[in-house]
Amino acid sequence: MTWSPPQIMPGQGSTLTVVAQNCTDTPQQASFFSYQQFLGSGPGVPPGCPIVEPLPARPVTIEAGGTFTATSRYNTYAGCTATRLLVTAQFTLGSTLLDAGSANLEITAAPPPPGCAVTYRNVSRWAGGFVAEVTIAAIAGAPINGWTLAFDFAGDQRVTGGWNAAIAQTGTTVTARNETWNAVISPAGTATFGIQGTWHDSDAPPTAFTLNGAPCEVR
């Protein structure tokens, strides 16, 4: 039993594939039955999740040495708080259990929306050198009290100076920390700092930024 994909977020779906093999030299008849349940950190059905009715049993015949394959699509509600969906499949003949298996679909909480947006632009550029301006915006409706912005240059740039932030570079990774006078970015406000540097083969701009360890929207 395999899930594709094996992990989803609330509101997404996944497909379960069940494969059974007849290891005998005669055809095997059975009833195929599956049931499923959303599970969370506590007992009972997690808030926001439905009670899923079992799929009806159906007769199947697996030829000698052959296989039986069944696929089912499972979707989750956006408000479902479960951490996994457990599906159990059974093959029975009358009251005799021939085979059974189960598979967990991991459900991870949707990440919170970013609280910051970053704009990086080259103000000036020449052979071997550049000046860039970086603007951080607070977009979550709350102030940012103290900030450290981190990013990786996509080229071979080296920082030689800057303003409005304490800037350091290790390899391709750059960190910029607030000065004492611009540590707070008010809701819907911005903070801007500058970078001066050199490059040899490429001055391709960074494509991702984190602020205090959390990803930012790139503008």
Automatic annotation (TrEMBL):
Name recorded for this polypeptide: Cellulose binding domain-containing protein
SUPFAM superfamilies: Carbohydrate-binding domain
UniProt source species: Micromonospora carbonacea
Domain CBM2: residue ranges: 109-219
GO terms (BP aspect): carbohydrate metabolic process
One Gene Ontology term of the molecular function aspect: hydrolase activity, hydrolyzing O-glycosyl compounds
PROSITE patterns: CBM2
Superkingdom of the organism of origin: Bacteria
InterPro entries assigned: CBD2 (IPR001919), CBM2/CBM3_carb-bd_dom_sf (IPR008965), CBM2_carb-bd_dom_sf (IPR012291)
